[in-house]
Amino acid sequence: MESMESCIPPGFRFHPTDEELVGYYLRKKVASQKIDLDVIREIDLYRIEPWDLQERCRIGYDEQNEWYFFSHKDKKYPTGTRTNRATMAGFWKATGRDKAVYERAKLIGMRKTLCFLQRKSPK
């Protein structure tokens, strides 16, 4: 895989809005369309630990406090609707309310905030 540093021009900053993330990047990903600048990595969020995200999702050389990536949802049970958010070291817990994402007054997605708890997942 080509390193992210080699394709990002100096001074580039990636600060997309929620609308841009869902309406452009996620929409293209779901439609299997090419995204011109490879700035969002595809990872398995539930197979790696959060402290490994920074290195895997880095854009360029500058220090970052936000990382963007695509990840599939794992189901806790094959026929269920609950999401399995456990890793080897802990689990991702949903916090707060989901935020609606609109494009031209049309609902196009929901943003969920997760925090990582370093312990065994509750039943």
Automatic annotation (TrEMBL):
SUPFAM superfamilies: NAC domain
GO terms assigned for molecular function: DNA binding
Record key words, sorted: DNA-binding, Nucleus, Transcription, Transcription regulation
Oxidoreductase listed as a keyword: no
NAC domain location: 8-123
TM helices/strands, residue ranges: none
GO BP: regulation of DNA-templated transcription
Domain of life: Eukaryota
Family annotation (InterPro entries): NAC-dom (IPR003441), NAC_dom_sf (IPR036093)
Designated name of the protein: NAC domain-containing protein
Protein's organism: Glycine max (Soybean)
